[in-house]
Amino acid sequence: MLERTIERFLVESVKTLGGKAFKFTSPGTSGVSDRIVVLPGNRVWFVELKSPTGRLTPLQENFARDIKGLGANYACLHSKEEVREWLIYLHSH
Questions:
Q1: How far apart are CA 56 and CA 50, in angstroms?
Q2: Is residue 41 classed as helix, strand or coil in its secondary structure?
Q3: N or C end: fewer C-beta atoms under 10 angstroms in the chain?
Q4: Alpha carbon separation from 91 to 45, 69, 75, 88 (Å, rounded)
Q5: Which residues partner with 77 through β-bridges?
């Protein structure tokens, strides 16, 4: 499964929940997550999407560590199933 297919699924799924999944680029800063997901209830997540065999680059690993260290929410999702499981988790918390 291609990363863009998973990303499209994430965007559509978040939209059905009343949220937004903004495409995220930060000129001059490498390794930032693909999307910033904003969900009802003041829930904001930085989300990296990968194909099922995809791996984070060292710069992406640094971003994940830094963002988590700041107390922000971060997820790296590798499939439509992981997107579904993540959304179920969010719905239950």
A1: 8
A2: coil
A3: C
A4: 14, 24, 15, 5
A5: 49
Query: Where are the strands (E) in the chain, listed by range?
Result: 20-23, 35-39, 43-49, 73-77
Q: Rounded to whole angstroms, how far apart are CA atoms 35 and 55?
A: 17
Write down the pLDDT at residue 72: 98
Backbone angles phi, psi at 76, to 5 degrees: -120, 120
What is the full per-residue pLDDT of the chain (93 aa) written as tens digits? 899 999 999 999 999 999 999 998 899 999 999 999 999 999 999 999 999 999 999 999 999 999 999 999 999 999 999 999 999 998 888
Residue listed under structure tokens 């209830």: 41
